[in-house]
């Protein structure tokens, strides 16, 4: 794995971890406590007590700090326990990936960090309060010391915690709202489609490259295999593959897409080289362009958010949930994604270097594959459900009527025919089948 992929993996793990941001905020609280104590040591001790409402006595300071510290850690424990219980209950109906999204949410991480940081800050300041009893000036700790500014900062942090708690309850309530969840996943899918189907990729050089591919790929390729025990292909560094192939005069064909699961020894790519054997260092450089993980990632895998929507769709139509209107929300996101995908040109499978020479072959996600991955499970989930099937047919008819999608009309009609076949084979009453096929809504 090259340095870029290592950094990407590290950043992704940090972003998805629930400990990193709270840990940073806890460290910041310790530094802030030390800074505030030093500031109090350099300020005339006692003049703040006359100007501020806070009692400038050791007993009062200890009471405030102990109250803030104890209440913050208690509220944090109770709040997050109840929240995780609510999230777990919601994920049982929507899907387990909801809990993963909760863990990645920076606002949730920030909330936990505020509570933990306030607790640690109060502990450090509490340790610095002295009443002067039994202490002498000789040991360097003599005399009464009440850090008024530090205590005032603790009160300010407690106010921040209360405001954060109110925001957190509001945010969590919205984060488990099925409408918000489906829309968020739909936006992720749209972002992935925009990156996979840019305006023009490879179109200018595709015609030039066809002859080169036919001539150069006539020789037997060398096969490079997966070099990990098992995992999901998360990211492919295409620029590194093309640069390496251009530098060593290679043509590389990628056999796996991001999101595919692979095991050790499985063919990963085919390499055509002018030399009899492929250099070991070159092979290692090519393999370093692939980033693997134990979980799928939506960075280059548009099917991942699509499968999330399909999962919500299937759970909504399951007998245990039976919420057709959640399925309709998913259908709206399907329609949005299909319209965007069909308007885009499929990028060329041929990748050229700066000299317009063939360097890589990578099969893009075609319209047929995307529609097949979507409608295959959707037809099975919706089978026998009159309302859902009606809206699926309505979606296909609506997309077919859009002039900009005319080149893909045959693909949509093929999906409609398969949907009609499912209707005829379902256990619906004959009159219900007739109403669906005729397009009636009542």
What's the structural blueprint in terms of helices and strands?
Layout: H1 3-16, H2 20-42, H3 47-51, H4 58-94, H5 97-104, H6 106-128, H7 148-175, H8 178-196, H9 203-216, E1 222-225, E2 230-236, H10 238-248, E3 250-254, E4 261-263, E5 267-273, H11 280-287, E6 290-293, H12 303-316, H13 324-343, E7 350-352, E8 358-362, H14 367-382, H15 386-400, H16 409-425, H17 430-438
Descriptive terms for the model:
442 residues; alpha+beta; Aldehyde Oxidoreductase, domain 3; 3 domains; 5-stranded mixed sheet; 64% helix; 9% strand
Describe the overall structure.
The structure is a single chain. By secondary structure, the protein is α+β, with helices and mostly antiparallel strands. It folds into three domains: 3-176, no CATH class; 187-198 and 299-438, no CATH class; 203-293, Alpha-Beta Complex (Aldehyde Oxidoreductase, domain 3), CATH 3.90.1170. Helices cover 64% and strands 9% of the residues. The protein has a five-stranded mixed β-sheet with strand order 1-5-3-8-7, with helices on both faces. The chain has a three-stranded antiparallel β-sheet with strand order 4-2-6. A hairpin with a 5-residue loop joins strand 7 and strand 8 (358-362). Residues 136-141 and 199-209 have low confidence and may be disordered.
